[in-house]
Design a protein that fits this description.
single chain, mainly alpha, Growth Hormone, Chain: A, 13 helices
């Protein structure tokens, strides 16, 4: 079912027009299957993959929505930040090294927030503030161009990684605290939230790819596209490494177009993490020191 949604997102405006019958048919098929899936889940009741009754709990709903949008933003950043570095002349291996600050900041965000939560018993401030710090970083990444210094890019990665890292693990702690008096529901509740996380990450990559591809097509139209010719335009769209094999007089405009397409895509992070931060307000603010089982989970 998800595939029926992802494929037209990849094709639309890229290999096929948005009004192409195949694109429309796939989207319509996704809508029909989604309705059937929801009806079946309702019919199965407590035996459903994702029981609807779980979402009657505001913490469950809030945590699931927050995880959905956190991973929506996180995975697109992890995938497309290396593209940005490669467009600036780095190799694939070097670009992987260049995003190490993001990974370290994410781990540090998780570690620091967990330590403070263990000491104070309060997790909700991290669930609210973390995504909004990430949203700020998304806005900063939107301003990136070919002349942006590495120091700024590292700083943006640190802000983003620390913000996201301080929130996503703690949403599961919130779920454990919520169902502390019903421990038999914790595995099911955690699974529902993890499923939302998986779907969010998958859709994030697909939607980001659609935005990037369509923006790159627009950037390579007009005089730049005329100078390159259709064959080179297709090659540039398929691989950033082609850019640096272009003649010197064409290389810089194409690099600018590529970097602009990646930076434009990063704006999606802002509303995604903004919604994640808002969803956190629905999560109950338990004190883990007063709920022994959940506090033990946080310490772990």
């Amino acid at each position: 079912m998800i595939t029926l949604f992802l494929i037209p997102l990849q094709w639309g405006g890229n290999t096929r027009e948005w009004n192409d019958p195949v694109v429309i048919g796939l989207l319509a098929g996704f809508g029909a299957l989604l309705i059937l899936f929801l009806l079946w889940e309702w019919h199965m009741g407590d035996y459903a993959i994702t029981p609807f009754k779980m979402f009657n709990n505001r913490t469950q709903s809030g945590a699931s929505i927050e995880l959905f949008f956190i991973f929506f933003a996180f995975l697109l950043a992890v995938i497309y930040l290396p593209f940005l570095y490669q467009a600036k002349g780095r190799t694939a291996v070097q670009s992987g090294i260049d995003i190490i600050p993001l990974q370290i900041a994410t781990v540090m965000g998780t570690a620091v927030s967990s330590g403070i939560i263990r000491a104070t018993g309060k997790y909700k401030p991290w669930l609210i503030a973390g995504p909004w710090f990430g949203a700020i970083a998304g806005g900063l990444l939107f301003t990136v161009d070919v002349h942006t210094s590495n120091a700024k890019l590292i700083g943006y990665q640190i802000i983003f990684g620390f913000g996201v890292g301080s929130a996503f693990q703690n949403t599961l702690i919130a779920i454990q605290a919520e169902f502390n008096d019903q421990p038999e529901l914790i595995p099911q509740a955690s699974a529902v939230a993890s499923f939302a996380q998986l779907v969010g990450g998958t859709l994030g990559i697909a939607i980001a790819g659609t935005i990037f591809s369509n923006q790159l097509v627009r950037n390579l139209s007009g005089p730049i596209g005329d100078a390159l010719g259709p064959q080179l335009v297709r090659a540039v769209r398929q691989s950033v490494t082609v850019v640096f094999a272009l003649p010197a007089e064409l290389r810089q405009p194409v690099v600018d177009a590529y970097v602009d397409a990646v930076a434009t895509m990063f704006i999606v992070i802002v509303p995604a993490l903004g919604v994640a931060g808002i969803a956190a307000f629905a999560i109950r603010d338990w004190n883990l020191k007063e709920r022994g089982g959940a506090a033990g989970g946080a310490a772990a």
